[in-house]
Specification:
Elements lengths: L15 E6 L15 E6 L2 H6 L8 E5 L10 E4 L17 E4 L8 E5 L16 E4 L8 E4 L6 H4 L9 E6 L4 E13 L2 E8 L14 E5 L22 H6 L6
Antiparallel strand pairs: 1-2, 1-4, 1-12, 2-3, 4-5, 5-6, 6-7, 8-9, 9-10, 9-12, 10-11
Length: about 250
């Protein structure tokens, strides 16, 4: 699969991206999956053996991979009109569609209030799933991670490959990756994804709710912007002085 390349540094309607929960050190659990985790569609293991068609609704999980394939590449879609190539902005409604490598097939990232019959498998929180039904349950919005600057960023373009929050419009719950809750899937051991907002003592969303819309790398030697090496510091003198390494 080929990800979209952002020429202006922003996300646009119609872009093909990966949704990545960036690496952080999990302090609330002893066993967890580290590294960057990518949101992936996860068909039921039994149904995957019995049928060549995707079962709907289809589950989701988070997995350690930086390679764009059919099960982890999503398309940014408009909710009400054709807005292809227009910049996606903080606070705007959008849908996330995925074909899963199938032709003439589009599933939408969705969620709904939990009940006794419908909740996530491990945490029993509000589940997220893929469905072919177009409805208000497909609607999401992006928000700036820092709550003190959130209102100031409303209406501004969303940068590609930057940390954002992805909130479900109907339930006002944030998309979250549970690195400590594992699922046994058709593809192996992966982690649970839910719709739930985690706040720390300062009412700031925790890293579980942080996501990046990752675009393609224009260089030929790598497929995504995650593959680019981090640039070295241009001037390390101040750092060396602070650490006592430079005595001159």
């Amino acid at each position: 699969m080929q990800l979209s390349i952002s020429e202006d540094g922003y996300i646009h309607y119609g872009d093909t991206v990966m949704l990545v929960n960036p690496h952080y050190h999990e302090t609330e659990a002893d066993v967890f999956l580290g590294g960057d985790l990518t949101l992936c569609m996860t068909p039921d293991e039994i149904q995957a053996h019995l049928s060549d068609e995707l079962e709907v609704p289809c589950g989701l999980s988070a997995v350690q991979t930086k390679i764009p394939v059919g099960r982890n590449t999503f398309i940014i879609l408009s909710t009400d009109r054709d807005a292809t190539d227009q910049v996606l902005r903080y606070g705007q409604d959008f849908c996330l569609g995925i074909t899963g490598g199938f032709e003439n097939k589009m599933l939408y990232l969705s969620s709904d209030h939990r009940n006794l019959l419908k909740s996530s498998k491990r945490s029993w929180l509000q589940e997220v799933y893929l469905t072919d039904e177009v409805s208000y349950r497909n609607c999401w919005q992006a928000a700036f991670p820092d709550p003190q600057l959130r209102l100031e960023h409303e209406g501004f373009p969303i940068p590609a490959n930057a940390k954002i929050l992805i909130n479900h419009c109907h339930t006002n719950r944030g998309l979250a990756a549970h690195r400590h809750l594992f699922l046994s899937t058709y593809f192996g051991k992966e982690t649970e994804v839910v719709a739930h907002t985690y706040l720390d003592s300062h009412r700031v969303e925790k890293p579980k709710n942080h996501w990046m819309l990752v675009t393609g790398n224009p260089r030929k030697d790598s497929s995504t912007m995650l593959d680019l090496p981090r640039p070295p510091a241009e001037d390390t003198q101040a750092v060396e002085q602070a650490m006592g390494l430079n005595t001159q």
